[in-house]
Amino acid sequence: MAARIIGTGSYVPDRIITNDDLAEMVETSDAWIVERTGIRSRRITETGTTDMAVRAAKKAMENAGLPPEELELIVVATSTGDCLFPNTACEVQADLGAEKAVCFDLSAACSGFLFSLNTAKVYLESGAYKTALVVGADTLSKTVDWSDRSTCILFGDGAGAAVLSSTEDEQASWNRGIGDFTMGSDGSRGGCLTCRSTELCSPFMEEKKTSGFMTMNGQEVFRFAVKTVPRSIEEVLKKAELSPNDVKYFILHQANERIIASVAKRMKQDTAKFPMNLAQYGNTSGASIPVLLDEINRKGLLKPGDKLVISGFGAGLTWGATLVVW
Ligand code: ACO
């Protein structure tokens, strides 16, 4: 049994905030942001995570040609759901009318879509379910302090989705499908990128722990990314007995153009094999990989048999890479 991606979809909000807009709010400039990150603008939602997730999911279902009643599993990768409960996946289920589906959210920040894709793959390969919808949706705009120039310039909102189906063909995971993967976590370094969502308080506590905005040690995250991403990609290619030259596209989490260029250099690969859309959208966390995958798919750039490596990294710390044969 193997799992294949049979459809993709994405949604970004209409509202565009440019670097010049931010320069009116904090002491920064378009030149600084472009030089250090490659980001030129970002989209900001006024409707929230569930709405974006539903819009991306509907496009993916349409692209896959799968009726919602045939969906058996929905996993939403998000760290910024509208509610603590119900989970975002249940809200997506209700809107789609996917009555049969089992629904849960998965929290792994910017690695969330990759972790969710691998989770759904394993469920499908086990035979537990035949179809799955995997969504990455995040509203980072509500987690950043818009007066902190070191973080507010980096992030945007959006959602992307992929529909998966299992196939009986035992060779399919090699011929076509979601193949080998590697994932990792290091909670001991979690402090370099954090955001507490709710206050910890009760009448029984003397001191409450307040919620707050995102805090980030940018340089530490940068160093972590440029070291870990090439290593995890090489690990997954080794498992699959492939070389980087066999890969058509490396679809990396869209955090910073310099991180992606550094990974390409370390792997001795042309940056043209590392598509990017962070200039328009910034870092959309769990949404960045599926939004990019959908853009590439809809441009008709993917042919059956093309090999892609998807790579995510982010808060936790968490990271991973997955081989997809289209
Ligand atoms: N505009 C102008 N100046 C700024 C800005 C800004 N927006 N932000 C910081 N500066 C200043 C700093 O105050 C500092 O000034 P100083 O030298 O007088 O002290 C100077 O610019 C350099 O600051 P650094 O932090 O050293 O800048 P750096 O080159 O490291 O770039 C950045 C910062 C862009 C955040 C970089 O470290 C980075 O991209 N790190 C990775 C962050 C990331 O990708 N996070 C998310 C990944 S995980 C996830 O997706 C959730």
From TrEMBL:
Taxonomic superkingdom: Bacteria
Principal location class: cytoplasm
One GO CC term, this protein: cytoplasm
Active site: residue positions: C110, H253, N283
Domain Beta-ketoacyl-[acyl-carrier-protein] synthase III C-terminal: 237-326
Molecular function in Gene Ontology: 3-oxoacyl-[acyl-carrier-protein] synthase activity; beta-ketoacyl-acyl-carrier-protein synthase III activity
UniProt KW Transcription keyword: no
Record bears the keyword Transmembrane: no
Region described as ACP-binding: 254-258
Signal peptide boundaries: none
InterPro entries, alphabetized: ACP_syn_III_C, ACP_syn_III_N, FabH, Thiolase-like
Root EC class: transferase
Residues annotated as domain Beta-ketoacyl-[acyl-carrier-protein] synthase III N-terminal: 104-187
The protein's assembly and partners: Homodimer.
Entry's family note: Belongs to the thiolase-like superfamily. FabH family.
Protein name: Beta-ketoacyl-[acyl-carrier-protein] synthase III
Source organism: Lientehia hominis
